[in-house]
Amino acid sequence: MVKQLESYESKALGLIKSNGGVMxxxxxxxxxxxDSREGSRLVQRLLxxxxxxxxxxxxxxxxxxxxxxxxxxxxxPVLHVNIESILGIPCTVCPYIDQCELGGFYEPMTCILLDSxxxxxxxxxxxxxx
Length: 130
Ligand code: SF4
Hints:
2 domains, alpha+beta, 3-stranded antiparallel sheet, Arc Repressor Mutant, subunit A, single chain, binds iron/sulfur cluster, 3 strands
């Protein structure tokens, strides 16, 4: 029978928290009576949501993971934002930004600086793909 892992998420977080915010992965699975496949999937779900982090450790010569609660000031899911793609955009330092608009003297559709930055970004993206 496939267990509904969603219902196990809060139980898992509660168990880790009550254990001081850290717990071995296998210990968690055992307490939740999950097999390794279900336990793995549960941990992946919690990792993806940013609710826990894990660290590879050796215990008695065997590799396992320690799970840690990720503390958050908010109850909202953690949102990971990557601004790398917009760093260097010329508009952030452009002296004409207040006058730049569609149909205006300065406009994004005809801006050489913006055009050149986009070309550079596309070229670097192609390099990463190939
Ligand atoms: S599009 Fe060009 S002119 Fe407009 S704000 Fe950006 S850099 Fe400046």
